[in-house]
């Protein structure tokens, strides 16, 4: 249902009061194909399939979400009424371009830490009203989702901590008021803060903008004193630094850049 509402809004934005070409053209059955003009990792199939079902288009796929493709690869064949296909061309392309671009960059990050056992996570740094779509694209690239919103995990960031006078007492109240299955993550900038967070009962501790040496110290302390607590590293994560961060022994690394730094790859549609 969410995908359908998203697609309805997307199509409405582009078509507006009606495609002017459709006013003067005659309907005919056509076939068009989606072709890659650069290499990448594919995303967007789930959404294109919903769009096709809504507008009575037939699809023949040669790729699945999460699979790599090369320049020249014909990814999809679309069959149906010419007016519908031409009216929906940009909406279809934009979804696939956006999702595949995020999936492609995410896959590069995942490959950089392959074999380490460390998980790559996204963040809530998503474009307004596109969170579900962009986090889906991260999954296409092999990453995992962090919080979808403020309602599925309690994260205490530095701004929250400034309003809390007694962390131990606050955490006792938290356990009485949030769902039993919800986890609590506390953002920390020093080993001293990490110790307080772990002693207070955090499920996850974030090493925020720590140096590699500091993160290593946190990992050693966790392993010795609180082995059940998960560690997440975040801040200044790039393709050049992520391998070193993973080597510290954290459980996960989160990065907003896999979404907001993704450059659009090149795909286009051609009519046979």
Automatic annotation (TrEMBL):
This enzyme's EC code(s): 2.4.2.19
Cross-referenced SUPFAM superfamilies: Nicotinate/Quinolinate PRTase C-terminal domain-like, Nicotinate/Quinolinate PRTase N-terminal domain-like
CC terms in the record's Gene Ontology section: cytoplasm
Chain ranges of the Quinolinate phosphoribosyl transferase C-terminal domain: 102-270
GO biological process terms held by the UniProt record: NAD+ biosynthetic process; quinolinate catabolic process
Class of enzymatic activity (EC top level): transferase
Superkingdom of this protein's organism: Bacteria
GO molecular function, one term: nicotinate-nucleotide diphosphorylase (carboxylating) activity
Family: Belongs to the NadC/ModD family.
Annotated function: Involved in the catabolism of quinolinic acid (QA).
Entry-linked PANTHER family: NICOTINATE-NUCLEOTIDE PYROPHOSPHORYLASE [CARBOXYLATING]
Protein name: nicotinate-nucleotide diphosphorylase (carboxylating)
The organism of origin for this protein: Sulfurovum lithotrophicum
């Amino acid at each position: 249902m969410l995908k359908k509402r998203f697609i309805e809004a997307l199509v409405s934005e582009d078509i507006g009061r009606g495609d002017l070409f459709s006013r003067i053209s005659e309907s005919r059955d056509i076939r068009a194909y989606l072709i890659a003009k650069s290499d990448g990792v594919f995303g967007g199939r789930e959404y294109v399939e919903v769009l096709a079902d809504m507008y009575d288009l037939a699809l023949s796929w040669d790729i699945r979400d999460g699979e790599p493709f090369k320049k020249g690869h014909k990814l999809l064949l679309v069959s149906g009424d010419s007016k519908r296909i031409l009216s929906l061309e940009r909406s279809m392309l934009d979804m696939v371009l956006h999702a595949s671009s995020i999936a492609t960059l995410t896959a590069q990050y995942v490959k950089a830490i392959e074999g380490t056992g460390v998980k790559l996570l996204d963040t809530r740094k998503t474009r307004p009203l596109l969170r579900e779509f962009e986090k889906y694209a991260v999954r296409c690239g092999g990453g995992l989702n962090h919080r979808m919103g403020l309602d599925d995990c309690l994260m205490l960031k530095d701004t929250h901590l400034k309003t809390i006078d007694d962390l131990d007492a606050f955490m006792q109240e938290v356990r009485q008021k949030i769902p039993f299955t919800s986890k609590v993550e506390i953002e920390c900038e020093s080993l001293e803060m990490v110790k307080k967070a772990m002693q207070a009962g955090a499920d996850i501790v974030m090493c925020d903008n720590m140096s590699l040496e500091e993160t290593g110290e946190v990992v050693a302390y966790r392993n010795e004193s609180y082995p059940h607590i998960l560690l997440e590293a975040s801040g200044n994560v790039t393709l050049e630094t992520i391998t070193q961060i993973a080597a510290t022994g954290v459980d996960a690394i989160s990065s907003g850049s896999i979404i907001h730094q993704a450059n659009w790859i090149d795909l286009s549609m051609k009519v046979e």
